[in-house]
Amino acid sequence: MSKTAEMWNEKYKADEYYYGTKPNDFLRLTVQGLKPGARVLSVGEGEGRNAVFLAKQGFKVTAVDASSVGRDKALLLAKSSGVEVDYRVMDLNDGFESLGGDWDAIVSIWCHLPLTLRQEFYKWTPGALRAGGVFIFEGYTPKQLEFGTGGPKDVALLCEPQDVRRELLAGQTAVEFEVLQATEREVQEGTGHSGPSATLQILMRRLAR
Ligand SMILES: C[S@@+](CC[C@H](N)C(=O)[O-])C[C@H]1O[C@@H](n2cnc3c(N)ncnc32)[C@H](O)[C@@H]1O
Question: What CATH code is carried by the domain that includes residue 88?
Answer without folding.
Answer: 3.40.50.150
